[in-house]
């Protein structure tokens, strides 16, 4: 039995079209397709073949605009090299920032919690009522938005 090592890439999706206080309509399958197209463009068939088996968008949060991508160790270099060149996801113009590359999903979530805590402190000063603050905190610290089923459907098309 062979153990496959994975890398979890934490990225921040920035868009000048949508204001910061509005949620970004970021669907994981659209992001997956755009990333695969960019890897095809930059690294060709070899890059696609190396990345295809292990690439999966594990987490997308529309409020904080953070996503986690899982890929195999080794071909993760193709993914990290293609991320800065990805400028369009669906019909939305985006800029991607790589925040963290980790070996486990747990460490990625620990990093995201620290990062989102600082985001939450920044956004709390802009909200007026406690209800708005509680709703924002619940949305920011929600780690249940994984669309793995959508990713698996997208992988079956390839």
Radius of gyration: 16 Å
Instruction: Name the shape in a single word.
Output: globular
Superfamily (CATH H level) name: Ribonuclease P, Pop5 subunit
Provide the CATH architecture.
Answer: 2-Layer Sandwich
What's the main sheet like? 4 strands, antiparallel
Helix content bin: 40-55%
Overall tally of domains: 1
CATH domain class name: Alpha Beta
H/E series: EHEEHEEEHHH
Share in β-strands: 15-25%
Task: Report the average pLDDT across residues.
Answer: 82
Structural class: alpha+beta
**What is the number of helical segments per DSSP (H or I, 4+ residues)?**
5
Largest beta sheet: strand ordering: 2-3-1-6
The poorly predicted ranges are 147-158
Structural features, described:
With 158 residues, the chain is α+β, with helices and mostly antiparallel strands. The chain has a single domain (6-145), classed as 2-Layer Sandwich (Alpha-Beta Plaits), CATH 3.30.70. The protein has five helices and six strands. The strands form two sheets. The protein has a four-stranded antiparallel beta sheet with strand order 2-3-1-6, with helices on both faces. Strands 4-5 form a two-stranded antiparallel ribbon. A hairpin with a 2-residue loop joins strand 4 and strand 5 (92-93). Helix 1 packs across helix 2 (76-82), helix 1 packs across helix 5 (148-157) and helix 3 runs antiparallel to helix 4 (130-140). The longest helix has 25 residues, at 28-52. Mean pLDDT is 82; it is low at 147-158. GO terms for molecular function: ribonuclease P RNA binding.
């Amino acid at each position: 039995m062979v153990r496959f090592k994975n890398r979890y890439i934490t990225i921040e999706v920035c868009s000048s079209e949508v204001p910061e206080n509005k949620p970004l309509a970021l669907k994981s399958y659209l992001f997956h397709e755009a990333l695969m197209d960019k890897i095809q463009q930059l690294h060709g068939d070899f890059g696609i073949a190396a990345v295809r088996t292990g690439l999966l968008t594990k987490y997308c949060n529309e409020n904080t605009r953070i996503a986690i991508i899982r890929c195999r160790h080794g071909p993760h270099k193709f993914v990290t090299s293609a991320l800065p060149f990805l400028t369009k996801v669906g019909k939305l113009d985006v800029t991607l920032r790589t925040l963290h590359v980790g070996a486990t999903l747990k460490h990625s979530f620990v990093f995201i919690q620290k990062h989102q805590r600082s985001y939450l402190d920044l956004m709390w000063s802009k909200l007026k009522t406690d209800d708005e603050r509680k709703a924002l905190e619940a949305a920011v610290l929600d780690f249940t938005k994984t669309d793995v089923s959508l990713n698996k459907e997208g992988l079956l098309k390839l």
